[in-house]
Structures
1.
Amino acid sequence: MKKSSIIIIILIAVAIGAIVSSYGDASTYENFSVAAENPDKEYHIVGTLNRTKEKHYDPKADANYFTFYLIDDKGKESKVIYRAPEPQDFDRSEKIVIIGKMNGEEFEASKILLKCPSKYTENEVKGS
Amino acid sequence: MNEVLFEGERLIYGNLGHLAVVLAFGTSIIATLAYFFAAQKPEEKNWEKIADSAFYVHTFSVLSIVGILFFIIHQHLFEYHYAWQHSSRELPVQYMISCFWEGQEGSFLLWIFWQMVIGNILLRTAGKWKSPVMAVVMLSQIALTSMLIGVKVFGYKVGSSPFELLRVAMGNAPIFKRPDYLSKIADGNGLNPLLQNYWMVIHPPTLFFGFATTIVPFAFAIAGLWKRDFTGWIKQALPWGLVSVMVLGTGIIMGGFWAYESLSFGGYWAWDPVENASLIPWLILIAGVHVVLIFKHTGNSLSVAFILILTTFLLVLYATFLTRSGILGNSSVHSFTDLGMSGQLLVFLFVFVILSVGLMVKRWKELPKSAKDEEIYTREFWMFIGSLVLVISAFQVILTTSIPVFNKVLGTNMAPPADVIQHYNKWQMPMAIIIALLTAVGHILKYKKNSGDAIRKIGIWAAVSLVIAVALMFAFELKNWFYIGLLFASVFAVIGNASLLKPMFSGKVHLVGSSVAHIGFGILLIGVLVSSANKQVLSINQSGMQLNPEFDAKANMEHVYLEKGKALRMGDYEIEYRKDTTEWVNNYYEVHYKKIKPNTNEVEYEFDLYPNAQINPKMGLVANPDTKHYWSHDVFTYVSSVPKEKGESKFVHPQTYEVAVGDTIVTNNGYVLLKRVNSNVKDGKIDLANMQLLIAAELEVHTLDKVYEATPMYGVQNNAVAQFESIVDEAKLRFKFTNVNPANGKITIEVAEKDTSGEFIIMKAIKFPWINLVWGGTIIMVIGFTLAIIKRLRDLTRKNS
């Protein structure tokens, strides 16, 4: 066999490996019910902040402990724990993406992405 | 709708701007067609003349667009949407330049500008390749200028004009019903505070210049296929390819440096889709340049060289599509807004894909191919393997970055890996190890044939590198085998390439360009490795106290609560938040660091950091870190949270003193001297009409390093006592003049201290060891590239004459 053929075979094998890996590592956008069924897996959950319930952040007591209630796109609500300071601009978020896993009744978020409609475009002209 | 005559609008500039855009678009079409015919029929000289004239007009119109847009921003013509949205009155001039690339239109304009500049260089240097190459460049220019047109064709908006009027862009707002609306718009929206950084003034132009240069090797490759000169294009395309690798690489790393200096994610690379989008074409281009070199020296692998060079530019277009179409929406922190032009971007991508694939297929059989099998003990063999590894590395990045695209196309519901960094490292680290090893092995070997001597050299240098790597392994305390492997490979890359520096000592500096570039790459890898493997979060809560009932041992408590004036021990450092100052729109928090020797508790050295935060009305808190650079490590600090609002200042511990002129009062941070008592006060703010008496105590307030003045006043108004307090914010003191004792001529002064207990910051601190190797390696790489480019340009001129 020519060396170039061997190289091509190895190349294809590695490429397939990369495809399988990125598929295997990929998380999915799910809701709290799915996350509760698979407490070991990490999920992306898209939802909105429940503004009627109190969010908790007391930096003096613990600067790394922030909790709030999120309603997922199926309408289910869960308490979310985020072990870092409250993200700035949190209240203005329109949509929130949390990444993490379910721990009993609570969702342990390792990352929070905020989607703020006004972040780059302020579509409102204020007269003075 | 009734025509309203609006007052004060300066429409002439927008009209001129629109005209320039249309002219730029029109001339790029004319130039493309004329260069196309000039390439098809070189004997008809008129086509080339038409094309050149169209290109000159094009150059003029692009310069006009840039000039007019800058004028509109600089003069604050807020009737234009772009100026209103991206700038504001108080913006310093250097950041007005950044306004250009905050918006999508402006960044396309930047790209158009660079491509125009490149066109002007090619016009003078491309020789017989001019017409076909310029035809391709101008085709790309049609695509880019159409992004600025902003007209509706059959209900579909083509492009988005930077000269759109505010009242057109936001037609529904009631304010625009008033003819005098413009006088009501006091200020623009302002520049995103994250972009108010000097690196943001130079990083985007560099990156876009890099993007723009990828058109040149692409255009030469297309021209080579088109004119059936399959090998002649290489000589001219090679220096451009090297320029492209150098500039794009510099741009990418500048972006990393900007992120490190001014973003608070704590690092220079986060595998964010936007970063990946610029990395992918760069990797493919590096592979392409190496395969072009293989062909140049051995005559092998021409078709692979074509494929890689063509793919680079297609990937630049794909990257543009990813970042500008809004498709990354949920997966990127800095997702860009969708201006509804993703369709248009896709059309361009397909046009260029079809052009490249079509030509490749059509000419495939004619491409010269080498039939003989490759020798293993040659440079070209290992260079080729290295290039393939780069391709796989890019392929893996592209796959994961494209997950949102797969979701769109396949209707799946995948999300990027939850732990992105770990996912990429798993793949990219082994690739980096292989590539680093190959840079040394491939370079020590010669093209075509090698004696046992070269293989012996590889063995010797590998052994030397192993010894050094083991020593460094202990010095850096590395335990992970992947890290150790990468350390050895990087050291070998540095040592192996350094062994080839001999020509430098005989004055032939231009010959060592590639060795120098690869040494830089090796140093860069060592820097990346050590700074991330030994990165240390200093601000981990080390009090040992269980502060929260729900405390979880595994939780990463990476942020500390720091009360003003209270020192806190954090690892080997003692930190204290001392004060904050406000400059323009930024609050700077002074954090004093003391490095403590672990054993003796002596202070080794101390320094201040000023992480700042801008409380932006539109974006909330925008934090910029501050970093103390030492040659062996950096201490990086940013503020992650501050009290929401500064409440009314409270003053505590009031104390009264009876003093005469010349007396002093000792305070908690200095002393106060009563200079004189003034009974003839003329204070404009106080209505003297009903005052029976008004006297002022003129005080000199001395703190540790500064002197301030305070003048509390005492008055009698309608037979009641009136006091006017005086506050010295900097000294955190409040003074009241409470009584006068005519008997002994003394007065009573009350001093109260400001209550600072509500003032705190929450911050994170990270120590990055040896991060300077990352920047140093980059600089060495750039020097190497510059030498290599000089060498290729010399080759070019020598062979032409």
Note: The first helix of chain A runs from residue 3 to 25.
2.
Amino acid sequence: MSAPPADTAGPAPLPAAPALEVSGLSVRFAVAGAKRWLQAVDGVSFSVERGETLGVVGESGSGKSTIARALLRLVSATAGTARFRGADLLALEGPTLRAMREHLQIIFQDPLASLDPRMSVAEIIEEPLREFRPALDRAARRGQVLAMLDRVGLLPAHLNRFPHEFSGGQAQRIGIARALMLQPELLVCDEPISALDVSIKSQIANLLKDLQLAFGLSVLFIAHDLAAVRFSCDRILVLYLGRVMEIASRTALFETPRHPYTRALLQSVPVADPVLARARRAAPLGGEIPSPLAPPSGCVFRTRCPFAGSLCAEEVPRLRPVGASLVACHRAEELAGLPRNGG
Amino acid sequence: MSAALPARRSEDRTERAADGAAALLAIRDLRVTYRTEAGALHAVDGMDVDLAPGEFLGVVGESGSGKTQLLLAMLGLNAPGARIDGSIRYRGQELVGAGERVLRCLRGARIAMIFQDPMTALNPYLTIGTQLTEGVRHHQGASRAAARRRALELLDAVHIPEPERRFAQHPHELSGGMRQRIVIAMALICEPDILLADEPTTALDVTVQAQILALLRELRTRTRAAIVLVTHDLGVIAEVADRVLVMYAGRVVEQAGVQRLFEHARHPYTEGLRRSIVPLAGPLPARLPSIGGNPPNPAELPPGCPFAPRCAYAFERCPTAPPPLAPVAPGHLCACYYDGPRGRIR
């Protein structure tokens, strides 16, 4: 693909540096009518290496979408930095922020809701070029649009149609084409396949993987579906109530999950094998995610954790290396020896 | 654990016969059609289903497959303008064309429904107690005190902590998982014979989904109501169902016992769905096997087999006429002309 344009903010980053380095990101919201704060994201640090897909998994209320929104500057971060292309994404303003958007694109969960119903497919896919490549003439724009259309598996005949004429899977292809038009350095995918029909999910998952390789994209892949994450991501961050529980490579996370929450998540996913499903029948994790308005003291997972002890209520566990993973659990070493179904 | 749920009514035991006439529910050639500007939309396009007392039937299908319309037809709740043809017999009583009075006596009392989104299924203005007792008060004429006793038993049976306190609360004061337990308790309060569940765990987080699936499994052994669970998730089916219907474009394309379906799926659509699941352990494919194309628009169904345009095995015969649902093994039905390399035409 073409070299990055020269007119970007700051010096070109060294090749070894991560594409994105987030440090101490916190986001809180004021609660209307009450003098209280809702801590949606609490001191989250991670990096997305170049060409890597980092998965962020968590249940509703874990803060995963808030992280994406903060990076895209759709909500303001209360604290933290996000190094991207030599600048702090969270501190950019005005024209420099706008210029940075060229390199940072997003694919949304609901493909139809994220496309303007009054714009044709051609207009939707061309818009980023009009905004950021004003020097291109009509023919050159059309050429790039047609090439992208082909890459995402749409036909030239689709160009003059409107979003409502497309199924969910096709609409997501349009959203992907729009996001990739400027060849961004970082792609944020917020639940990109979870709204799609089962038979379409795998088509789009394959497409995203192909494009990620072809364009050398760095991807932040936000999802609640562990199977989708296993297929799409190189490394995975597990989030619970705004805090990082575990960060590990795909292999480490799925083969030797270290955090009790990661273990519980993996055990909760229904297994598409009736014999296995009926044989394993571990008791499901009790309770539900607590209110972020009143998070538990110490470890936020302790109220549901079968292994919680007194230290867990007193001290917030730091994220630290255990085996091949980074784990925020006081008892991670002890638990490492337990069988997978331990509990 | 409480003993709030009584044993099954005794007459059920006499109904073990496998033929449709003795089934708890027998559906024959059911069609649900909507008239639209683009012409007739066949939401359900000729379905036969038998439900035995106490069985757990899973129905898998994607959006537009007709799975929700099938459930609504059992309750006579399809949208106005729906044309219902065919027959739905509950204990021999015909429900298609039955008057509102007949249906109203059955709904909630004999055939109850658990909806997908517990927040919209509950009335935000009424207390849990009021909503929970409405059914027994209406259908069984229970006194306020008796209804309250029964409701508290049910809350306990679905493992709601502090039932007395919950009874007085409003839906917004409860978590999503708790609300779904309330909806399940509401569906069970009149001791129905049939419990319909439309994607009951899709709106829930995965750890809560596991709790609700465990609850459904537990309830089916204790209430002995037949459960029809509709989902798009084969994983959920594998966890709970005894028998499975696979729906595509308003038809049943395959039907088998759960183990048989997962081990010996015969329909190319079922096989495609099964293969596209990413395993959580073991080898990971570089590319996911996927079904090409898109589900058909129910207003523009292709002639012949509706899956043929997406099917890797389609041949000349497939677009000519829809393949009948025919036995391929005992208890295993499949609607497909392709019969593997051994010979194409059954």
Note: The CA atoms of residues 66 and 108 of chain A lie 13 Å apart.
3.
Amino acid sequence: MNLSYRSYHVFVRNLVSYKRFVVPTFIASLVQPLFYLITFGIGMGAYVGLFGGKPYLYFLVPGVLMSAVSLSASYECLFGTFVKMIHEKLYDSLIATPVSAEDAVAGDIAWGVFRGMISGTLMMVVAMAMGVFPVSVPAVFLLLICMVFVGVLFGSLAMIVTSLAPNFDFFNYYTELVLTPMLFFSGVFFPLDNFPAWMKSFSKFLPLTPAVSIARAVFSGVYSSSLITDFLYIVVLEVIAFYVGVKLMKRRLIK
Amino acid sequence: MKTIISAKDLTKRFGKLTAVDGISFDIAEGECFGFLGPNGAGKTSTVRMIHCVSPVTSGTLTVDGLPCSIDNRAIKKTTGVIPQEITLDIDLTVRENLMVFSRFFDIPRREARKRIEELIKFVELEAKRDCKIDQLSTGMKRRLLIARALINQPKLIIADEPTTGLDPQARHLIWQRLRQLKSQGTTLILTTQYMEEAQQLCDRIVVMHQGKILKEGTPRTMIEDEIGKDVVEIRVAAEEDEKLVGSLAGFACGHERVGDTLYFYCRDGRDLQKKLVELDLHNTVYRPATLEDVFLKLTGRGLIE
């Protein structure tokens, strides 16, 4: 693993080029959560009434926050990286400089995390505008830290897919068959308590589930000891995904 | 002269395909060394190993005494690469492209700004400074690639077919810039399919074919050794060959029939030319031998795909 501080240069490169896309992506990142929160929160909230003594939106917001981060980071490391690698040949010129393949991939994952955090932060702002606040000010910062962990995890998982993708269509398998269904199995929109046992155990292994549990606990200030295993699971998974993602991308980039 | 690059039994394999097949060469500091060869000869694979973006399968390869390997940042730091494909960052402007690249080499900002202004002048892109890449012509893009390759003030420049697809004006400007760099003491490695380019720029060349080096030398000695001094091309039906060869062979040092043309290679073509006048042959071309003759003789005239 030939990793160095030069990943930061790759991150800055992405930041410089992002200047041109800021407005459209900001609008997308703002409108999308509005849809979620309005349709699910208000529409469905009216049916489900109070959740643990609070309106449904308090249940929904932390889940949607984490899924927004996971999706943004994934898309950036799928489509964004693929375009840079295949269409723009950016990686080819990068690895001819002292920036190593590992630096380049890590820089792109960091970029995915950043994009995820933009989505997550905007969503939090929207939720606050709708009157849904985390329990305390420190909870806001804890949620931001959660976003970093979720971003690295999903950015790295997406890198693994990108390293194997022959073309754009390949990503559909991952986004349609993995990412989208995952939202419904991870307790984002409703609690998993009523799932049959086997579905509950299956859900537990999905990477988004522990993230949603942690975010929900932080948001409401109600902690339980099972969060420790949730956190450890995320850390272990993300170390493995990062290592495998970087290695596979290097194999693809260097021939 | 000091040797800067040394290759011994250098081999590159991609799966079952052997792209570079045990070649050896030395490149001296400050010279322009050319790799010539048809498509798929192994030129690009060779230079990619030199600038450490492709691992060596077997054999040894050193730059400045350092062994080439993927993780050799020291070699990459002092090497400038003008790639065959246009790998500019299309999301960025001309200046931003250079600025971002300067970061990859850890060049301090202020120094980078100074170099970027000089380089933009050097490749004559002043008017395009703040344009995005899709507003540049192919020639401009290639010039920007040169500027980008120079941002780290490299000791060694690798130019992989730097003028492919350019008009004559753009090509000559690039040649001039490359010669200018060479006169400042930079070592230059060039791969090309254009014989004129090799003749214009290179002190020494190797002709590669199917992963092997067929011939090494200066362009001039290579022409003299392989072809002679002059070439006479006669466009004539093949039935005439026997008669013509019979009456002209004495004046030439070799002949070859290709398609509709009979070629005679001569050390000194003046007598042959006189004889041609005597025979009252039309459709003849008398010209000095070029590197292209050498190239075709060595690598064959068949299409290579």
Note: Chain B has eleven helices and 14 strands.
4.
Amino acid sequence: MKFLPSLFVTTSLLVAAPSFAHDEEALKTAPPGEPYVQVSDALPLPEFIPGLGTLFVDPQTLPAGPFLAYDHDGKLSATVYMTPLEDLQNGTAYDGLGIGSHTVSGVDIYYNAGHPGVEKPHAHVVLYHDADAKGRLAE
Amino acid sequence: MMTTRRQIFALGGGLGAALLLPRALSAASVEVIEMRGTARGERIWYAPTGLAIEPGTTVRFVNRDQGNSHTATAYHPINFDRLRRIPAAAEPWDTGFLLPGESAEVTFKAPGVYDYYCIPHEMAAMVGRIVVGHPDDPGWEGPAPATDDVSVEVLAALPSVEDILAHGRIERG
């Protein structure tokens, strides 16, 4: 989109060099710290998005993510990926993506028409990290 | 639910681009266009997508989508250098991003056809059309022609002026 500053543009100057951390302990509770930024701080989106919770992302990893999804108590509940369908169709592959926790209890994949930050129609791939996570992120 | 009256614009009159109106004055002729979406964001739309109003009517855009933000932005060069799709006599507007529960009001004065879009959702063809007055009104300006500035999907999503005038409002939820 030619006129909407992307999250990458608006925040990449504010964060340190990216280095995805697989230190699960550091990511278990919000905020996860650098290089992650809270999505609602950088974009006009609700702080808590029903179904996704409070999202943090390393801007360098956009659009795919991982987006770390926290519940109302700040517990890491899901890792979310957002993959534009047009990019996939044109041959883009999103390989080797990070993950917030290596414990995954379930996965949801569904279509999203777009939102600030990832305007292209895309798929949400949601990895839940415990059996109750989906319910905690619902609203 | 929080309601934010972010902006009130008077369009097409001699009063300039922005004119704050007392709430009581505008309450008599206010139409509501809701910004809606499914819970997971598979579909997003304006409700109604097409609306017929009389000159001087205020339209309140309200975001009823709990998981997304939306704008109502006129196609006009002043808004991100887009080609004009509102009457030449009208002032352009942009509500800015409205979070869930927020709203903004726009007053339409110049007769004609107004096309607008949602900034983050134009790719998903979230667009709307407002018809102000009637084709025989002095100064009426009909719909803008198709151009490369808007996609085929956007043009297809805009209700026809004839349908809007015939039915008053077109819902495409």
Note: Chain A is about 15% helix and 25% strand.
